[in-house]
Amino acid sequence: MWEWSKITIVKGDITKQKADVIVNAANVSLLGGGGVDGAIHKAAGAELLKECKKFHGCPTGEARVTKGYNLNAKYIVHTPGPIWRGGFFDEQNLLRKSYINSLKKAIELKAKSIAFPSISTGGHKFPLDMASEIALATISEVLSKEENEIENVYIVCKSEDTFDQYEKSKKKMAG
Ligand code: ADP
């Protein structure tokens, strides 16, 4: 059985979310950017960029851990999601990897709670309906299959449209 009860869709700003781990939809440079990445760097403070520089980037679908600095989180997991290029470049599998590798880091850190943004559906243009189903299926599958201490997964949606799509997909998939 897949695990759905631990997943909550939240409407809000992820930088205000209280969780052991906050996931950043980064880009491959890991040096900050627009959207949620910019908001996280702004809220966390300048020390975050200093720590990110030491990684010299991160490939799409992988994940890197930093401290949470001024966020309400112990750690930030940075994962560059795929840029949508028509679906011909393994984008769906790469988005799945972003969720799997972020959750693996959170499990290693013994996190009890983790907050995700809607990875890749802003500047990276991944179609929202497909992205929401990949996000939900991957999260519930990992929670069910991997030994973990996670009690709560929050998917924090900034816009009403994003929130509505995740709610719709969750209803469709979880019943
Ligand atoms: P990507 O480059 O992975 O597409 P974006 O940051 O452009 O990342 O967008 C990903 C999602 O994050 C979008 O749904 C966007 O509306 C949302 N977003 C932007 N700022 C925030 C925030 N502060 N909290 C939560 N979600 C946010």
CATH architecture: 3-Layer(aba) Sandwich
Q: How is the CATH topology named?
A: Leucine Aminopeptidase, subunit E, domain 1
Strand content is 15-25%
| Rg (C-alpha, Å) | 15 Å
Briefly note the structural class of the backbone. Answer: alpha/beta
CATH superfamily label: Leucine Aminopeptidase, subunit E, domain 1
Annotation field: number of helices: 5
CATH class: Alpha Beta
Helical residue percent band: 25-40%
**Would you tell me the overall average pLDDT?**
97
Shape: globular
Query: Poorly predicted ranges (pLDDT <50, ≥5 residues)?
Result: none
The termini sit apart by 13 Å
DSSP, total strands? 6
Q: Could you give the order of strands across the largest sheet? A: 1-6-5-2-4-3
- Biggest pleated-sheet summary: 6 strands, mixed
Order of helices and strands: EEHHEEHEHEH
Small-molecule binders here are: adenosine-5'-diphosphate
What is the number of independent domains?
A: 1
Secondary structure blueprint with pairings:
Elements: E1 7-11, E2 21-26, H1 35-44, H2 47-53, E3 64-67, E4 75-80, H3 91-108, E5 113-116, H4 128-145, E6 152-157, H5 160-174
Parallel strand pairs: 1-6, 2-4, 2-5, 5-6
Antiparallel strand pairs: 3-4
The structure holds adenosine-5'-diphosphate (ADP).
How is this structure best summarized?
This protein has 175 residues and is α/β, with parallel strands linked by helices. The protein is 39% helix and 18% strand.
Q: Your description of this structure?
A:
There is one protein chain. The chain has one domain: Leucine Aminopeptidase, subunit E, domain 1. Helix content is 39%, strand content 18%. The chain has five helices and six strands; from the N terminus they run ββααββαβαβα. The protein has helices spanning 35-44, 47-53, 91-108, 128-145, 160-174; strands spanning 7-11, 21-26, 64-67, 75-80, 113-116, 152-157. The chain has a six-stranded mixed β-sheet, sandwiched between helices. Helix 3 packs parallel to helix 4 (128-145) and helix 4 crosses helix 5 (160-174). The model has no long low-confidence stretch (mean pLDDT 97). Adenosine-5'-diphosphate (ADP) binds next to helix 1. The site of adenosine-5'-diphosphate has 22 residues, from helix 1.
